[in-house]
Protein 1
Amino acid sequence: MQTQCKIEKLEFQAEGVRKIEVDFNGGDITSDGGILLLSQTEESSKIISQLAECFIDHRNQNYIEHTKEELLKQRIYGLALGYEDLNDHDQLRYDPAIAAAIGKSDPTGKARRRNSDQGKGLAGKSTLNRLELSANNEKSPDKEKQFTVDNEIIRELFVNLYIQSHSVPPSEIVLDIDATDDPLHGKQEGRYFHGYYGNYCYLPLYIFCGDQLLSAELRTSDKDAAVGALEDLKRIIPQIRQSWPHTKITIRADGGFCREEIFVWCEANDVKYVIGMSKNDRLKKFLQPQMEQAKQAYEATSEPSRVFGEFYYKTKNSWSLQRRVIGKAEHLEKGANPRFIVTNLSRDEYEAKQLYEQLYCARGEMENRIKEQQLELFADRLSTSKLKSNQLRLWFSSIAYVMMETLRRSALNETEMSQAQCSTIRLKLLKIGAIVKVSVRRVYIGFASGYPFQSLFIKVYKRLSSLQPCQT
């Protein structure tokens, strides 16, 4: 990558007989050679191409040098490669390997129109910033607006990408719902202090199916955790059923989503649910025999003990009918630890122990997926002043996650990295140093002979190359 550094020779002390000399005259070298795997993933999945259809470009097409699809690729590939800020792109724009992977016909930028842009194959931070701020614009064109975006189509896109990833409709799926905090460090719109998390934050709501992301909605933190969950279910589940009418759907969530309106809608629309409940004195009284049994077992063995009970329960005011409740009577070294879940799954479908341990407890894996996106793909970098543009940033991070998950699912399955997190995939397969040579006919990217994951890289490339392009 070209830099503005003055070329001078540096000498380092070494233990051996040869001295070490360093300069910055090695030519075009990238640290992101593995971006080609992201490009190949996009070639088969068309994820970013479909995202680009959600944007309207109001610029005069006779004068632009970066299409909306190229801008989106630059931003999302950057997130996947570990560049969280727009400022990073003022240096990345010099990298011909990234420009070539995005599809630039002039990856070196030597033919750029303005003298100040020559040698920069990609867009700078200001152009990318105008794309991000498009979320604040109305749909109608205006001379001051360069882009507008249709949020509803983006919401539909995440579900469509999930559906497209299956060649055959699954017989059953489980949708996990959860909220998390997204700390704020400025005066962003919609900034509120959250007592539970102990900071100023947003409260995004996520819906996953296994490792796949179906929804990421940014909310202010002055709301109940369940606010918006039912609206998302009413949007997502009919969209899934339009393509998969016979697929059984179950939703799974913790006690923050134990709400009558969610139960009633699921019961009326043939959707199963398994949702945590806050414990109270009435629930504990129902579970008292099992708690005594668990306590006796612990006293006899000094080992944690667990006994399950179930009963039908109705709150005094908020529930319209009795529902099946599973109680986990657990006794630990610290004492009793009762837990409860409510469900409309029958005993014939799941007995109590199996329902709690195998179905409900599996929802904990969703928290790992949220951490991947929040910490490794920078969903916590919501630093624009407006709520709408921060929602768009959250979606860019979400698309970067979908890209990485698609790469993992389609090309890393049955390898040593089939369960690898995004940061591990980035480190071992994307952050590869390489020499870049651009000629009239080709772009040559040369990896180091000592790259330790050559065989895996080749296997991933072959798998991605064999995939049929997505039919959108």
Protein 2
Amino acid sequence: MRDLARVGRLIAEGGARGSAQIVPEACIHDIAHNGEPHAWAAGDLASYFPGAPMRYRSQWYVHDFRVPAVFAIGIHGQYLLVDRQHGIVVAKVASQALPVDVERGLLTRNAVSQIVRVLAASSG
């Protein structure tokens, strides 16, 4: 899990680790600001996020509600959220029985939303 969180921290810090630029900032900006909402809405996974203002770009999901956040979902419950505005990273590893479990995915997203809300409020 620590490695997954480190990927999130790298994204949160604009692709840099100390003074070394690991991922070009332009790539992270592209993920966070591009992707077509209309294409997302017409896609197969939109039904898993009903009513959510979403985009998808370069293997990352982008949620444009309140504070834009990027997140990645893997099979069997893996999840990584990066809220760059507040510097928050939430990583979850799991071994759920189903590769895609819509109900558990919703529980994860709701829990992560609450965690981010509390941490963002406490940071200032």
Protein 3
Amino acid sequence: MRARSTFARQCLAASLAAALFVGAAARVSAAPYQGRDRINLVIGYEAGGGYDVYGRFVARFLGSHIPGEPQIVPQNMPGAGSLRAANYIYNVAPKDGTALGTLSQSIPMMQLLGTPGILFDADKFSWIGRVSDVDTVLGVWSTAGIDSVDDLKRKQIAVAVGGALSGSELYVMFLNKLVGTKIHPVAGYSGKTAQLAMERGEIDGSFSLLLNQAKVQNPQWFSEHKLKVLVQIGIERRASISNVPTLTELGTSDDDRKILAAVSGGDILGRTFVGPPGMDPERFMLLRKGFDAMLHDPEVLAAAEKQKLDINYLSGDATQQLVHQYQALSPATVERIKAIVAEADGKRK
């Protein structure tokens, strides 16, 4: 692990202090859980956002799918893009199965890029599983005169992205460098303002679009062919847009495809749940099995549909494998990723 910077030490100090806020879990014996047991679910973001919504949804249903039906108590611990919560779970939280967390989907990529404040190895968290990925797509407005990725190599267009080093900005950055597109990223638009800006002709497209959300909020975009979806993020193509390539497919070499898969990893990881490293093995397996049972329960799936929450379950083992892909990258590939980010960051400044 990298040497601890002053900022990193401050993050750990904040995490230690946060332990008082979260409250120590009751001392319990080894598995199985008992009805009096309590599991603290640390949510790495403030109340009201997507991570909070999914975190509280899991807290509502997970306990009833675990033997002993322990109480799941959600508690928000925002700070530093969830690094505060990640450092707490990794370094402070009890390992007896009474502490879980939901953290930024970008945690592995942040570690790869050497983001200050990281005091963990993402590969060593106890990965419980994924509730859903994030169905990000590149959508281009019909008036832009772009019908394919090849068109993006010939004509420059302005596309809305999130903040610096957000997933959507990274997608544009690596598409331009590895695929040869000429996309001009425009930061400063939220999801809703980007949609309005496309309709007004202020920008040509957005890489901050969530497919299912856009279909619900703006069905006419698709029925009237106002929006062209050119790239999707995912392990494989979604059935509803099976003619649209994934970002990874666009790589022209094996190394480029590995890089694009790593860049896509955040949205593929999506809303995941973790425990600290070295968790009690019996409780760890109970949590994984309970998580699996919860996300195959028809009543839970019906509740998610009513709440308009996407569910795309991935097991703990499969989630762990997604995270491990970052560790499996060669040093030369990691250096290429860092160099591309540094080059694009330098141009922005």
Protein 4
Amino acid sequence: MLKIRVAAWLPLGLLAVLAGCPKPAGQAQTGGTPPPVPKPAGAAKQSAAQSSLTGTVAIDGSSTVYPITEAVAEEFQAATPNVRVTVGISGTGGGFKKFGAGETDISDASRPIKQSEIDAAMQNSIDFIELPIAFDGLSIVINPANTWVDKLTVAELKAIWEPGSQIKNWSQVRQGFPDVPLKLYGPGTDSGTFEYFTEAIVGKAKESRADYTASEDDNVLVQGVAGEKGALGYFGFAYFEENTDKLKLVPVDNGKSVVAPSAATIADGSYSPLSRPLFIYVSSQAVARPEVDAFVKFFLDKAPSLVKEVGYVPLPASAYSIVAARFQQRKTGSAFAGKATVGLTIEQVLAAEQ
């Protein structure tokens, strides 16, 4: 399996709300150094229709979803050389701000859109289609030199990360742990990963201690944990998969079982509560442009293979069929806004779509 950071995809309600006319805004701003992207396995065959397409597709949002979207963009541009696709990584929240302002055509997201973000888009007459694309499992990682941690409980993680936490040494985490300074690394507050982790572990989204090294660029987090013996961090599973030589994975004790993230445990929901769905949101008005419509169709066609190739968990084939049908029907709105997604399995997501 090619180890690449990529956006986690999940099967969730694929519907779209708000009608908008996002302006193709050229190159989307990025936060930090873009993660590596897998090269196309082979040049995509160009059809006459594809090769004649022109225009721009502007995308921004989640750094977790970025690798998948960028991989799709590379293959799409190989087949459609006259269409320019730009992909930014300003975080899920930052991406929704641009999307709601009409600055982008597609928004990558590692959590469902919020009602406040829907309202902001509505003020600008922006409508959208919600498309789940894969599953991800947030990975708790430590430095390979850490020989004392074999697992962490949800309660221990909460005590470490909750607001006001004074835990600054491993000896404070559990009796018997050594006197080693604890250095924390995690996503910034605009990140969907940050919101999901805090909701799943702390109990409330965006509730977290502030004295940690934060970055929207997961490469910065990887390097931080890799460079500190006492470091602890979290980010998407594909980022760990890409850096197994630099990081050590920590199994999570959820009170029922001790489970480490893997393609199998993420897919079957046993890696709880840190398995999650990932999405792209497509502007309804932007999709009226042939190049945007073609890109999204290409994305959904390539998703099953590229999601797996970059290290995430694809949806079942039946789920992708449902997602593709939703897109073809141009169903707008969100099936997940305002609903808890912590612990959702693929089966539950699909049931919500029926």
